[in-house]
Design goal:
The structure is a single chain. Helices cover 38% and strands 13% of the residues. It contains ten helices and eight strands. The protein has an eight-stranded parallel barrel. It is α/β, with parallel strands linked by helices.
Length: 268
């Protein structure tokens, strides 16, 4: 089984272990790349927290292939602060930390969750501030070659991006504004399928936009083979349209983390 095409999302897999032990667990299981949601409690963690996180990845000998921007209090329902007008200082502080992590880890894919619709901010104002903040990221993406990815999500009533087309509209609006920020689509095949998006059509129609791919089966959001989604067929379609990037494993293991990886053999 070729594990080199996959990265392990250590914010949802290996959760039975302390955060700083998870990269090593992925390496011990045979993987060479890991990704994380934002692994800190605040947008601008203390220097020692950053150093310990970076050290855990370096000591494991794996690459950091993807990282989320600070997304607020996800346990309380937040799903990003990109479009939240009142959280500008947090966002700017987080960008500085993201830039540091890009420099010291070599990570080149950063997921900026768009943010929920808020009752005290109009959708139009939120979309405008998201556009402005994405535009301001041009200096970061131009200097590092990194990409910011935008992700449709499921199961969050107030999150406005449900389909690939809606995320691509954000990207197109940004480019039409003249911004040079490198922004791409995070095609999480699980979220797209659960939201009744046509995944095969997304792959065929938006291949040039896709900057990262993540997988889980449905129903259940567990490992491939535990649900009904044709994940193996979709991965072949992605290969056929030229996608050669990593595929993030972003599922909740049904049994144990290590045992869940046996399911990947069904995707070849």
């Amino acid at each position: 089984m070729d594990l080199s095409r996959f990265s392990v999302n250590c914010s949802i897999i290996f959760t039975e272990l302390p955060l700083l032990d998870r990269a090593q667990a992925a390496a011990s299981a045979g993987f060479s790349a890991v990704e994380f949601w934002w692994p800190f409690a605040s947008a601008s963690p203390e220097a020692n927290e950053l150093d310990n996180f970076v050290r855990s990845i370096g000591d494991a000998g794996v690459s950091l292939s993807g990282l989320n921007f600070f997304a607020g209090d996800m346990a309380a329902g937040d799903r990003g602060i990109l479009s939240a007008l009142a959280r500008g200082s947090e966002f700017n502080d987080n960008v500085a930390v993201i830039r540091h992590l890009a420099d010291v880890t070599g990570c080149r894919v950063f997921n900026a969750l768009y943010g929920n619709r808020l009752s005290d901010e109009s959708p139009e104002a939120q979309d405008q501030v998201a556009l402005e903040r994405l535009s301001d990221l041009a200096s970061f993406t131009d200097a590092t070659g990194a990409a910011v990815v935008i992700e449709p999500l499921s199961a969050v009533a107030d999150y406005p991006l449900l389909t690939a087309a809606q995320a691509v509209t954000v990207i197109d609006n940004l480019h039409e504004s003249g911004a040079t920020t490198k922004v791409q689509l995070l095609a999480d095949l699980y979220h797209l399928a659960v939201n009744n998006d046509d995944v095969s059509n997304v792959i065929a129609s938006y291949a040039p936009y896709i900057g990262h791919v993540q997988i889980a089966d449905a129903p259940g959001r567990n490992e491939p083979g535990t649900g009904e989604l044709p994940i193996g067929a979709w991965l072949k379609e992605l290969t056929a349209v030229g996608y050669s990037g990593l595929v993030g494993l972003e599922y909740r293991p049904l049994t144990s983390s290590v045992e869940s990886f046996h399911s990947l053999s069904t995707l070849s």
